[in-house]
Design goal:
Number of helices: 14
Distance between the termini: 126 Å
Strand content: 25-35%
Number of strands: 15
Helix content: 40-55%
Radius of gyration: 39 Å
Strand order of the largest sheet: 2-1-5-4-3
Structural class: alpha+beta
Order of helices and strands: HEEHHHEEEHEEHHHEEEHHEHHEEHEHE
Largest sheet: 5 strands, antiparallel
Length: 443
């Protein structure tokens, strides 16, 4: 009998030693609470989860004393009481745990077991929590993407779910928008070829992406840490129908197979993009005459001089003679109507590739590009003067006309500032000589 007693003591000692070794070396967050819900043993990962350094800072204390987040402490205590009252172990319960050092949410899978002595009396709780944050977020993300796929928002042409590792389309859904849709595809190769064939701009980011669309290429992107990429481009989505499309590619890990997958969606943004382009265009235009405004005019001319220095260009500086008479006698509304008509005629006198803008008040700029000879410039200046005079015919009593100063690139200057100064001097000379004429700059 004495031998059995000694063996039991030795076994308990061995058990306690093994248990302490488990607590010290386990990667799981483990704890033991007594019947009063006071901590009696904890693993080091549990200590770190609580935000402490040593086990001694937890042992002998309750949740309310060790957790900085009091709402979390109350919930843990309530869970324990519910466990005891229900008299049933809790297995693999997903719950939030304390945040990581960088403030990110964390989740654990917790199991709690009721501890009893030999007589069946409740003596405490054993808890084991595994940090499943990565898997939990991956599963939530996975489920969210699947809901997107099967929900197929009304503005989305198609969603394709691709297994990158197996290189196959797991699922695909399509629908018509404005009587257009994307081609139905059964393989990844078909999807890529259909996308490449439908992209309008072969130099766009979309074209570059699909030209490199392989399993290796997608995995390289994923391994850089990018979970999502997107781009906008024009795409043919039906017979003779071109629309702006937003492609969104999201990487997710299949929670069952562990494979890298990609969710590829194509959303219609045509109306949004065209409204955006209208705003961009409006910012470049003079609101009254709908010619380029001063800033856009200057920028456009500088760009041409920079990108096409080998060609001859001509700058026309146009000013309305006696315009003040119109505003003073007939009012500013009449003056605005005159400028609108005049702008339309000046614009119509030049090619689409030329630059025509209003630089202020009744002054206009026009840059005629790639002029082959002086005779053409001479004819254009006379044509422009005659066209403007026709607009002024309705205001004969006000003696309206126009004066035009002309400078030529590169003879009169190689920068906009030099051409501007030369054209301005020529304009002044036209005014001095009696107006209603054009004058070439003289260096």
């Amino acid at each position: 009998m004495k031998g059995n007693h000694m063996e039991k003591i030795e076994f308990n000692l061995l058990l306690n030693t093994a248990f302490q070794a488990l607590m010290n070396n386990s990667k799981d967050m483990m704890f033991i609470k007594d019947a009063h819900l006071v901590y009696r043993a904890v693993s080091q990962p549990f200590v770190e989860m609580v935000g402490k350094e040593k086990q001694e800072e937890i042992i002998g204390h309750m949740d309310s004393e060790i957790f900085a987040d009091k709402s979390l402490a109350k919930r843990y205590a309530a869970d324990d009481k519910k466990l005891i009252k229900g008299n049933k172990d809790l297995i693999d319960y997903i719950e939030p745990i304390t945040e990581s050092e960088d403030g990110q949410a964390r989740y654990g899978s917790t199991s709690k077991y009721i501890l009893r002595d030999d007589s069946g009396k409740f003596i405490g709780i054993l808890g084991v929590t595994r940090d499943i944050t990565r898997d939990y977020i991956a599963r939530q993300h996975y489920q969210q993407e699947l809901r997107y796929l099967f929900g197929l928002p009304k503005d989305t042409y198609a969603v394709s779910f691709i297994d990158v590792d197996d290189w196959r389309i797991i699922s695909q859904r399509r629908q018509f928008i404005e009587e257009g849709t994307l081609q139905e595809c059964h393989t990844v190769e078909e999807l890529v070829e259909a996308a490449k064939a439908s992209i309008v701009d072969e130099n766009s980011g979309a074209a570059v992406f699909y030209n490199n669309f392989t399993a290796g290429f997608l995995r390289e992107i994923y391994e850089t840490g990018r979970m999502q990429l997107n781009f906008r481009y024009q795409r043919r989505v039906g017979e003779n129908m071109v629309r702006w499309v937003h492609n969104d590619i999201r990487f997710i890990i299949d929670v069952d197979s562990g494979h890298l997958c990609a969710m590829l969606s194509a959303k219609d943004i045509d109306e949004e993009k065209r409204e955006e382009q209208k705003l961009v265009t409006a910012a470049k235009m003079d609101k009254m005459t709908m010619l380029y405004n001063r800033e856009t005019t200057m920028d456009s001319i500088r760009r041409i001089l920079r990108e096409e220095p080998e060609h001859n260009h001509v700058l026309f500086m146009i000013d309305v003679d006696n315009f003040k008479n119109l505003n003073d006698t007939r009012g500013h509304q009449a003056g605005d109507e005159f400028l609108i008509d005049l702008a339309a005629e000046i614009k119509g006198s030049f090619r689409e590739t030329d630059v025509v803008g209003r630089i202020g008040g009744d002054e206009f700029f026009a840059l005629m590009k790639n002029v082959p000879g002086d005779s053409i410039t001479q004819r254009k200046a006379q044509e422009l003067l005659d066209t403007i005079q026709e607009v002024c015919e309705d205001y004969k009593d006000l003696n309206l006309s126009s004066s035009i100063g002309i400078s030529m690139y590169p003879q009169d200057g190689t920068t906009l500032e030099e051409l501007y100064a030369q054209a301005d001097g020529a304009l002044y000379e036209a005014k001095r000589k009696g107006k209603n004429r054009f004058v070439f700059a003289k260096k």
